[in-house]
Design a protein that fits this description.
Acyl-CoA_Oxase/DH_mid-dom_sf, AcylCoA_DH/oxidase_NM_dom_sf, 396 residues, Butyryl-CoA Dehydrogenase, subunit A, domain 2, 3 domains, disordered N terminus, Butyryl-Coa Dehydrogenase, subunit A, domain 1, 14% strand, Acyl-CoA dehydrogenase family protein, oxidoreductase, Butyryl-CoA Dehydrogenase, subunit A, domain 3, four-stranded mixed β-sheet, AcylCo_DH-like_C, alpha+beta
């Protein structure tokens, strides 16, 4: 990956701390990835655990987070994830999940849980997976949640149910699982509890799902069959687990936006490089005005999304509240659009070469579609912004 397209803008947006993080990520990627390696992992649907280990060794999972004290810094996280999105996209998506685990554990874990789960997660010695989505529940997963946990007389919880679309579940060391623990009216988000569940616990079965994009990180179905979890692995407050998750969604929106932005940037760099060397009618195709204008529009979308994202991340590090969440929602929407628009333009710029599986454009095109619906659909993001930012009546 080169700096030819984005260097003036990213340099202006980065403060010294963010610039140092960006240099560190690029150094790890330069030493441990290549276009061929990225293509091979995508084709073989194989997670690059070695790259994850190197990123962890460089302190890029921990970043500024302290076991007791300072929590995650959003500006640093989004910088890591943008760089990964531009190349090692599937590893970036997996680290979005790890960063969510870091935030949940940092906010809600007790001291023994921090020592047993947060500390090794920060060091990169373990990986976690977040088990929320279910076959019958999408955006309304709390209302539709059918996974149940019942408490036995000795305090042990027993989990039964199914989860779907769970990234990295087959190879994770532990899961953070949400299950209904109290029967409250279906419109309520209460009555759901978070559990830390070691992946080796008897009764857990994972089945990989064959997906179009993010192929180097498996998505899985999970079945919980009489899975016994000790009482000391309840994470946070009983029956309020979904509220606790909602408290961390600001960071997940930012981090998803960062990967989408990285995909857009990677696609733009690839398309510009191609347009500069591919000739037709005796000159580079990048000299044709219609094509050039499309690439300019893509560049404006990428840089607009980057500036909005870093403004939202900086604001999130400095304050909390509705305005922060609205900025993060806008950043996610802008980055999602940048990803889909730029990869579409890139495919058309490259024509048949964009279809070639050895080249990255088709992978960017496939991968970008994830963030039109994760961690929340663009339509629901628009609903949120309409209500919270524009003051319009609630539309759902």
């Amino acid at each position: 990956m080169t700096d030819s397209v984005h260097a003036p803008f990213s340099t202006l947006a980065d403060n010294p701390e963010v610039a140092a993080v960006r240099r560190k990520v690029r150094q790890v990627l330069a030493e441990h990835t290549s276009p061929e390696r990225l293509a091979d992992h995508d084709e073989e649907e194989k997670y690059d655990a070695e790259l994850y280990r190197e990123l962890a060794n460089a302190g890029l999972i921990r970043l500024e987070t302290e076991l007791h004290g300072r929590g995650p810094a959003h500006q640093s996280q989004v910088t890591v994830l943008e760089e990964l999105g531009a190349g090692a996209t599937s590893v970036g998506v997996s680290i979005v999940v790890q960063y969510m685990g870091v935030e949940l554990l940092h906010r809600f874990a007790d001291d023994p849980q921090r020592a047993s789960y947060l500390a090794p997660l920060l060091d990169g010695d373990v990986r976690m997976s977040f088990a929320l989505s279910e076959p019958e529940g999408g955006t309304d997963v709390a209302r539709a949640m059918s996974t149940r946990a019942r408490r036995e007389e000795d305090g042990t919880w027993v989990i039964d149910g199914r989860k779907k679309w769970i990234g990295g579940a087959s190879t994770a060391d532990f899961l953070i699982v949400l299950a209904r623990t109290a029967e409250i009216e279906r419109s309520s988000i209460d009555g759901i509890t978070m559990f830390i569940v070691p992946r080796s616990t008897p009764g857990i079965t994972t089945t990989p799902i064959d997906t179009m994009g993010i192929r180097a990180l498996e998505q899985a179905d999970i079945v919980f069959d009489n899975v016994r979890v000790p009482a000391d692995l309840v994470l946070g407050e009983e029956h309020r687990g979904f509220r606790q998750v909602l408290a961390t969604l600001n960071g997940e929106r930012l981090n998803g936006a960062a990967v989408a932005l990285g995909i857009a940037r990677g696609a733009l760099e690839t398309a510009v490089e191609y347009a500069g060397r591919r000739e037709a009618f005796g000159r580079p195709v990048g000299a044709f005005q219609a094509l050039q204008h499309e690439l300019v529009d893509a560049a404006v979308a990428v840089e607009s999304a980057r500036l909005l994202l870093h403004n939202a991340a900086r604001t999130s590090d400095e304050a909390e509240g509705g305005a922060v969440e609205t900025l993060s929602a806008m950043a996610k929407l802008a980055a999602s659009r940048a990803g889909t628009v730029t990869t579409d333009i890139g495919m058309r710029v490259m024509g048949g070469w964009g279809f070639l599986r050895q080249l990255p454009m088709q992978r960017y095109f496939r991968d970008a579609r994830l963030y039109t619906f994760a961690p929340l659909t663009d339509e629901m993001i628009r609903n949120y912004i309409g209500e919270k930012h524009l003051g319009l009546p609630r539309s759902y």
